[in-house]
Amino acid sequence: MESTLLSRKDQIDQTATALFRTRGFAATSMRELASALGMEAGSIYSHIRSKEEILHRICFRLAEDFFSGFEEAAADEILPAATRLRRAVESHVRVLTADVAASAVFLHEWRHLSEPARTEFLALRERYEAGFRQLIGEGAASGELYAPDPIFAALTLLASLNWLPSWYRPGGPLAPIDIAHRLANQLLFGLEVRGNQK
Amino acid sequence: MESTLLSRKDQIDQTATALFRTRGFAATSMRELASALGMEAGSIYSHIRSKEEILHRICFRLAEDFFSGFEEAAADEILPAATRLRRAVESHVRVLTADVAASAVFLHEWRHLSEPARTEFLALRERYEAGFRQLIGEGAASGELYAPDPIFAALTLLASLNWLPSWYRPGGPLAPIDIAHRLANQLLFGLEVRGNQK
DNA sequence: CCTACCGATCGGTAGG
DNA sequence: CCTACCGATCGGTAGG
């Protein structure tokens, strides 16, 4: 019945992720989590230190996934900026779709982190967004992309991508890579220079 | 000192909106809310029936604002679909910027509504999104817009718009109407048919 | 609008 | 991993 592939701690993280996503961190009680795991509330604490520790692990694991994906996609500076941007978009979608529940928690529940974790998290996110701004700015400077306001463009681009966990369902008609391509196309057709564009 | 323009009930709603936005509905206690209003927790209940009633009012008021704005923008069927879509986008941005705190609550805290309000709310949101899909679909059918997948396009468009409360600050360098135009342009340049587009 | 309070539930711990 | 429990806090009410 139960998957024995996951350690008890990983089971806790995974079950908590699903609950945090659907009910929110604050509204999820340790009793609920325990019940979903088939154990008593007190027993969870032999595997974790606190409720917030679970949230911390989810948020920072995702941050790491986004970062390493971006590095791989955008590091090769020989490639044109537009190509690197497209690869970065695809990486972002890949991370999102690989674990939509964790992604939703990452996107919405981080504010329940207490200091200093919260500030640290926001700094990471800011650095990540700066990577996208940088790529768009480079593309605009080289004339590959049409982006009169790279800050604005980066904001809109990431916004479109980050809405994905609210509608994507694994096993739907579109595979993650298809979604990535469609999103990249839809977003970049609005950025890429074409003949009659000013 | 205090604004006497607002009824006590409206003050409660407004203060609650700000708290629900920054701390989340579940994590905001009635004691916190009372304290922010300069009163005791029990006293709030002479103006409202329950904590959830406040959330309900915020969410459904915004839904109404979005709907009436959309009607006004998109009802005139003589206008081309692309024009109506642009007007609908501008209306959406106007509602968002008119009260970013309430918009953020509308976008993220509705899931704390209990049934049947929750289902009712989701039905309203679905109908609203369908209006955008409809416009995009019409524009695609008439050849005004390039949108091979109107569902996908509508999702991405609203996603980009709905990220606004997370970065918009009233009194910034861009006026709401400027933001509306920029967003509409950035999004529609990716949709509008141009010469060399397939 | 306050004081005083209700039962319920919270995150977390001790001791086994 | 459970039982039994801690102090704190929750949303909400009664009575004035």
Automatic annotation (TrEMBL), chains A, B:
InterPro entries: Homeodomain-like_sf, HTH-type_TetR-like_transc_reg, HTH_TetR, KstR2_TetR_C, Tet_transcr_reg_TetR-rel_C_sf. The keyword Repressor applies. One of its GO terms (molecular function) is transcription cis-regulatory region binding. It comes from Hymenobacter amundsenii. PROSITE patterns: HTH_TETR_2. Residues 29-48 bind DNA. The lineage of its organism: Bacteria, Pseudomonadati, Bacteroidota, Cytophagia, Cytophagales. SUPFAM superfamilies: Homeodomain-like (SSF46689), Tetracyclin repressor-like, C-terminal domain (SSF48498). It comes from the Bacteria. PANTHER family: HTH-TYPE TRANSCRIPTIONAL REGULATOR RUTR, HTH-TYPE TRANSCRIPTIONAL REPRESSOR KSTR2. Keywords: DNA-binding, Repressor, Transcription, Transcription regulation. Residues 6-66 form the HTH tetR-type domain. This is TetR family transcriptional regulator.
